[in-house]
Amino acid sequence: MIEFRGVTKQFPDGTVAVAGVDIVVPPRKTTVFVGSSGSGKTTLLRMINRMVDPTAGQVLIDGTDVATLEPVGLRRGIGYVMQNSGLLPHRKVIDNVATVPLLRGEKKAVAHARALELLDTVGLDRSLADKYPSQLSGGQQQRVGVARGLAVDPNILLMDEPFGAVDPIVRAELQQELLRLQGELGKTVVFVTHDIDEAFLLGDQVVIMQHGGQISQAASPAEILANPADDFVADFVGANRGKRALHLTEVDGRRIVVDDDGRPAGVLAS
Amino acid sequence: MNLLLDGIAWILDPANWTGVGSIPERIAQHLAISATVLVISALIALPIGTLVGHTGRGKELVVTVSGGLRALPTLGLLTLLALWLGIGLQAPIIALVVLALPPLLAGAYSGLESVDRRTVDAARAMGMREGQIIGKVEVPLGMPIIVGGIRSATLQIIATATLAAYIADDGLGRFIFAGLKTRDYAEMLGGSILVILLALAIDGLFAIIQRLVVPAGVRATRTRELRSRPPRPRAVVGRPITEGNPE
Amino acid sequence: MNWLWSNLDLVGELMLTHLALSVPAIILSFVISVPIGWIAHRYRWSRGVLLSLCGLLYAIPSLALLIALPIVTGQRTTSPINLVIALTLYGIAVIVRTAADAFDAVEPDVRQSATAIGYSAAGRFWGVELPLAGPVLLSGLRVVIVSTVSLATIGAVIGVQSLGSLFTDGLQRGIQAEIITGIVATMVLAIGLDWASVAIGRMLMPWWRPSAAERRRTLDRVERVDAA
Ligand SMILES: Nc1ncnc2c1ncn2[C@@H]1O[C@H](COP(=O)(O)OP(=O)(O)OP(=O)(O)O)[C@@H](O)[C@H]1O
Ligand SMILES: [Mg+2]
Predict the structure, then answer these.
(1) I want to staple A213 with a disulfide (CB 3.0 to 4.6 A). Which of A40, A252, C71, C194 is the partner?
(2) Which ipTM value was assigned to this complex?
(3) For the domain that residue C57 is a member of, what is the CATH number?
């Protein structure tokens, strides 16, 4: 369990990126931080592995304040996947995946064997192991990034817009893959995105962030849709319009569901 | 044309290949002084440049100092030091070290600076220590530019070591100054040709090294980019690796 | 200081001589480099060859070049013209790369829209590409100014009069003040010419506002040439 208690971050230049955040990230579930650009999502995420230290408040992992932990060791125990995959361009795929175990002093043979298994886990062909990141497609690089995040079998996996830079088709594929993986592995996943559809698809808990680094609402997708906390949330999730505002109409005696623009979304199964 | 032939004849004259102050001896001296200076200045400049490039701190200071050093006329520094320290190798060595610092510093810090900050960030997020980030990520990726700095510094040293013969009885420059005194243009020219050949050979050697130190994964990107991208200003500093290799 | 007061005439005269050597070399190398840089930018195949040649030129030690040049030019080694030619060659070696980069940096969109509104090829060069490449060209020129002024002193060891003569003479006669005066005078000349070039740049490019970022980039370029 990860807990934020009254966490605030003000950067030296005066920007308040996160203001008084209280939130609990439940274990073995996916929590998604969603919000527009600059709302402090990345900052919040990076406080978990101490890439950023809060200026006020505490971040606790299983009851321990991370401020009391040594950052390098902490980071080695937490998986981190970022938007541009962050792979080391001068190392082969297999070495990238095995980086952290090797840093931790594992034997090379063991680390490499495990890395190969991880390639299977994330759905990559083992023949890619000896390629360099630049020789892979964006989607493949992102999978390698996920494999690297899983390399030390961490309990916590931090993902910062991991699918932000790939095209929509590949993104949909990667999203499904992540759902499958999470079903198998049951990690505590903290996921950042600014795509509300992605948040609803992946999140057990969705945290909606507002500009200035405040939380507008944290709840399950269904609750948010049913009970948006305020107009900002309602507007952000588009509850009143577009393809989320579904209505029933009757055509030839069958009940059809249509969206706000009158486009059919499906039939109502009874 | 006769002049050139005279110079070549001087080089080929067997008399100049033996005895005290022979061509091989002068070449060895030239290389020895250059190597000494390179090692000393690299020991000073590379760690500082690496640190500045890694932390991003102190860049302004380094740029200002090395800019000032560049405007300093070589010969002025050399003669001033010679006046203080007397005839001999001390003055040229110090002058040469001072002159080699700016390119070495520039190469080291711009090499590290050229590494994508996101890659460095990812390395840190994975749990690399600062030293590991420098050693395993920034230095290997910045190596072509670091070597570029060493290459420029070396050329600068070889050129200035020629001038050093004005102060000390050392190196290939001796032929130039000896020829100047006895009005023997053949000897001056012969010495100059030797210096030029030496500089070009070393430059070529560095060109090869610079190519070899491009990390394999980066080379893979580069070839792909060359095919698909329109000409763009290089973001990297240093002598481009594609040189002499028209895309 | 005493030495300086009693030799003001000499220093002034040598400064003028020094200017007469370096200014023509700076102007010549700029005028010659811009078209070469443009060719390197425009025709990809020529780029590698031209830039390699400049790299080779740059690698040649200056003293050796001064002595070897007369084989080609027919000048005496001690003639000022010989020195000006050598300085010009070094200047070219430095600016051509910057000039190619400067033209590369002109946005393709701007170029295309210039063509689209009816600029001829020549009109586009003078009216669009050259002005837009101006700031980067100027930064290259500034590097050349500093290096040329400092390099011109080398001629003194083979007998070409310049501020460098203060070094050789000061060493022979053991006058420290003379050498220091020479160093300061050389640096003053370099800085003065540098300012002048910026002033002229402002005049020719009134739209150009060197931002803090750009000033930093100019410094970077200095470093780049260095690492190059
Ligand atoms: N190192 C820093 N120094 C100063 N300000 C910063 C720093 N990092 C982030 N900020 C500022 O803090 C605010 C929040 O940044 P953050 O990166 O957390 O936003 P985000 O929600 O992740 O945005 P995005 O969706 O664009 O990634 C922004 O206004 C940003 O400009
Ligand atoms: Mg972010």
Answers:
(1) A40
(2) 0.84
(3) 1.10.3720.10
